[in-house]
Design brief:
single chain, mainly alpha
Length: 151
């Protein structure tokens, strides 16, 4: 019997199966959840004085970068041909979010992180509703092409 040295091996395998079998709407919901989770972790590393402890700077940068990567993946998944005005609006939002987060890597402004988190939470709720109402259909979500969330 092989020993799995990674204590999260089973959890990671479970998540991978969940991603591979999820509907497109569920994948989008999962991306939003991942972005918000990483932003929350980054925000929690900022002290009341607006500074980050030296031993948390790398983690902070990683959390912000992961959120930006997820937002970029959402942006890349937009189908501008089929998505019309909705896809254009989402594209503008995603670009704006990443611009704000890029600034936050240096400024550590909690208000900007919270703004992006709040907007992502609102979009998340919209996608939860949309994916629930179309859960039993095989039609693609307008404005979204196939997703690649590996990495």
């Amino acid at each position: 019997m092989a020993y799995n040295a990674n204590p999260y091996g089973g959890l990671n395998a479970y998540r991978e199966v969940g991603v591979k079998t999820a509907s497109q709407g569920k994948l989008i919901v999962m991306l939003y959840e991942g972005a918000v989770s990483n932003l929350e972790k980054a925000k929690n590393l900022i002290g009341p004085d607006g500074k980050i402890a030296a031993n948390h700077i790398e983690s902070y940068g990683n959390y912000i970068q992961k959120a930006m990567d997820i937002i970029s993946e959402l942006e890349a998944s937009l189908d501008m041909t089929k998505g019309g005005e909705i896809a254009k609006n989402l594209m503008s939002l995603y670009i704006y979010f990443n611009k704000q987060l890029l600034e936050v890597t240096i400024s550590h402004e909690v208000s900007k992180i919270e703004f992006v988190m709040n907007m992502m939470n609102e979009l998340h709720e919209s996608w939860v509703s949309a994916s629930a109402s179309t859960a039993n259909t095989t039609k693609m979500t307008p404005g979204i092409s196939s997703l690649n969330i590996t990495g």
